[in-house]
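Input.
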Amino acid sequence: MDPVIVTVVIMVFAIVMFVWEKLPLAVTAMIVSMALNMFGVLTPAQSFAGFVNASVILFASMFVVAGAFYQSGVASAWGKQILRFAKTERQLMVLTMLLVGLIGAVMSNTAAAAIFLPIVIGICATSGFSRSRLLLPMAYGATMSGSLTLISSPGNLIAHSLLQEHGYAGYAFFDFGFVGFPVLFIGCAFFGLVGQKLIPNRGDLGESDVKEKDYSNVPAWKRNLSIITLIVVVLCMIFVDQIGIANHVVATLGALFLVVTKVMTEKQAYEAIEWKVIFLFAGTLPLATALETTGAGSMFADWALGMLGADPSAFAVTTMIFFTAVALTTLISNTATTALLAPISISIAHAMDADPMAAAAATVVGAAMSFLTPISTPPNTLVFAHGGYKFTDYVKAGLPLTIVTSIASVILLPIVFPFWP
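Output.
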């Protein structure tokens, strides 16, 4: 059978299964990887190449480094101290969004939301604020953190890896932040001015089953070492060109240091890694390889460009890629969205003789606009039951936020990532 047809059929299968979610996303990703091998599209080495990909190693190691920051109680303590400055519900809403967004820049947005969930619930219990008014904005802040740094979302590293496979340098640590930070601040300002009127007030939801972990017995030296390690690792990533040590090597050394010094046990290090993300990541990378090697990606690129007419502008292409990602991420996770769209976006850039970094960046930032449903990103799902939300609550608050942040993104993307630099 024609490898192009096989690849397209498998990609359609992946989209359907990602939307349907009858199987875990990571399981679907691995089925896709194995099917590409069994039908002769990829070799066994190509099907398993994702597990030795530098970005997969980087993300697994950063789960451990960020896990120490979380398990030692540093993130929780900092969050509580800073939130003491918020005196009103509106101030608390905005400050929570901003804090969880900034912390999400150096760890997964899921971990950032998990840190702040018990903190916000505890504050609501003592202050009398309804947690339904605060948890959804918190989730949105965590979601927006996904486009702040190279390590703030698995999708960022997927795009980075695909570019490197095409011979490009990939993104620097803060490249996405030139779009992501303004978008985060605009999102926070939106809720501070008008967005807070769109959040439901469910009143007293009763006792929550989420209890804040007691970190009082964690030795001070462990807290200090977790802070120092995270800061050193991040600084090495920022100045990677000057230091000359690859990001995934730096992150791995940081993770090993935390285990060797017993800041974390070996078991805690394993538990800190979100293995479903690793398998989803490693399982979807072979699909990108298949799209490239079979020519299926170029076929989709030609079709997309044909819809835009002859000689489309860079702005039109950026907007098309961006809003395709926004639409798809309402149905499936932002990581899966990037894994599916990034190789096609790169093919579009090649067809236009443009910079593929710009096309991939539009995919990454668009995939981070996951505000419309409770299933489009883990932070949205995390607060769904605890806030007593309905599906329509996400649409009511998320649609205006999507419009505002999308306008800002499509303006900034061509400036930060020009198609023809």
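The CA atoms of residues 94 and 188 lie 5 Å apart.
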